[in-house]
């Protein structure tokens, strides 16, 4: 029933989410607390923040002990090393219905709806699907050391989440008694309010700590780009229809009311120019889809290498070197360089 520590990496987190059965989302790493950058990645469902945990730090804002009353899914962290998965789940379980959770998480969310935070945490700890997905990133170790209690001087890092739920910006930390409220917000301004909260937390460490990590849970870029290309294809066809005498120009006749680019232009010249613009944007979107697929491929390869057990190969390689009497000279050479 042990849970391993996992690397703070967008490729790792994205595959972990997929293995839990969730579709249509991914994780992106952020290198700056920039509201405009976050808005360019919209929709952003939540932020995952990694920081050095310090015992005894008080909550940064009021803690709401009755999360259920506010419609927040909040689970206590009852498992050691599970804070990464816990932070991810804190966002996923509070996402809008447009996010497809998959059977495991959807059933858990429904089953635990009236549970308190501790029972929700126990439900997570007892989920074989979640534990298996989390532990799939365990690193093989040649020597298993017995577990020990963390010492005062040990560096202990912790993941928490920030997201809006029912008009309130929440900090979701499984080690607290409940969700931490940072005040009212909207789906449009919550990121602007979350950035100074995170910045303030970073500044508390002054110059004693520089190791932080921030990631965003967003809609799948590939899905967003493909949807955009489809929208553009529809607009292009309406332009071509208008050029052919089928209407659709000017006042919006034949226009899709959900078209983010607005009404079609008036006149053949304007329509031809619009078709040319659309074709350029479609080509760019398809190029970005290909680039995203290549990046996903790199993530997949990196995760395969993370999970692969190289230890038997290394042991056998050293054995062969020893049998051919090449190991000792290499050791002596390495010692000489070290001196």
Report on the structure:
This protein has a 6-stranded antiparallel β-sheet with strand order 1-6-2-3-4-5, sandwiched between helices. Helices cover 45% and strands 12% of the residues. The chain has 339 residues and is an alpha+beta fold.
- Low-confidence spans: 248-255
Helical/strand content category? alpha+beta
Which strand order spans the largest sheet, edge to edge or round the barrel?
Answer: 1-6-2-3-4-5
Write down the domain tally: 2
CATH superfamily label of the largest domain: Peptidase C12, ubiquitin carboxyl-terminal hydrolase
CATH topology of the largest domain: Ubiquitin C-terminal Hydrolase UCH-l3
Largest sheet: 6 strands, antiparallel
Specify the CATH architecture of the largest domain: 3-Layer(aba) Sandwich
CATH top level class name of the largest domain = Alpha Beta
Tell me how many strands there are: 6
Termini separation comes to: 45 Å
Mean pLDDT: 86
What is the CA-atom radius of gyration, in angstroms? 25 Å
Q: Please report which band the strand proportion falls in: under 5%, 5-15%, 15-25%, 25-35%, 35-45% or over 45%.
A: 5-15%
Q: Considering DSSP H and I runs of 4 or more, what fraction of the residues is helical?
A: 40-55%
Mass-distribution shape: globular
């Amino acid at each position: 029933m042990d849970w391993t520590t996992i690397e703070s990496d967008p490729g790792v987190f994205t595959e972990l989410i997929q293995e839990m059965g969730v579709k249509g989302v991914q994780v992106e790493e952020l290198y700056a607390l920039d509201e405009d950058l976050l808005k360019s990645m919209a929709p952003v469902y939540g932020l995952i923040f990694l920081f050095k945990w310090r015992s005894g730090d008080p909550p940064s804002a009021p803690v709401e002990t009755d999360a259920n009353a506010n419609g927040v899914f909040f689970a206590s962290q009852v498992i050691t090393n599970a804070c990464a998965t816990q932070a991810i789940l804190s966002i996923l379980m509070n996402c809008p219905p447009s996010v497809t959770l998959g059977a495991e998480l959807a059933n858990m969310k429904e089953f635990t709806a009236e549970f308190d935070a501790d029972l929700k945490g126990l439900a997570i700890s007892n989920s074989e699907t979640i534990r298996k997905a989390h532990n799939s990133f365990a690193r093989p170790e040649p020597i298993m050391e017995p577990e020990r209690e963390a010492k005062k001087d040990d560096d202990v890092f912790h993941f928490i989440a920030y997201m809006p739920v029912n008009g309130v910006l929440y900090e979701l930390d499984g080690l607290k008694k409940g969700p931490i409220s940072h005040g009212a917000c909207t789906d449009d301004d919550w990121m602007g309010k979350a950035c100074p909260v995170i910045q303030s937390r970073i500044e508390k460490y002054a110059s004693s700590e520089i190791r932080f990590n921030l990631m965003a849970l967003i809609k799948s870029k590939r899905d967003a780009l493909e949807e955009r290309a489809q929208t553009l294809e529809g607009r292009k066809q309406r332009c071509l229809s208008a050029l052919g005498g089928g209407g659709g120009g000017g006042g919006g006749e034949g226009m899709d009311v959900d078209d983010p680019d607005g009404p079609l232009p008036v006149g053949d010249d304007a329509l031809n120019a619009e078709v040319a613009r659309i074709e350029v944007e479609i080509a760019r979107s398809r190029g970005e889809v290909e680039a995203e697929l290549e990046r996903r491929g790199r993530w997949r390869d990196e995760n395969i290498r993370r999970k692969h057990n190289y230890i038997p190969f290394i042991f056998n390689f050293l054995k062969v070197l020893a049998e051919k009497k090449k190991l000792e000279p290499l050791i002596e050479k390495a010692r000489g360089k070290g001196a």
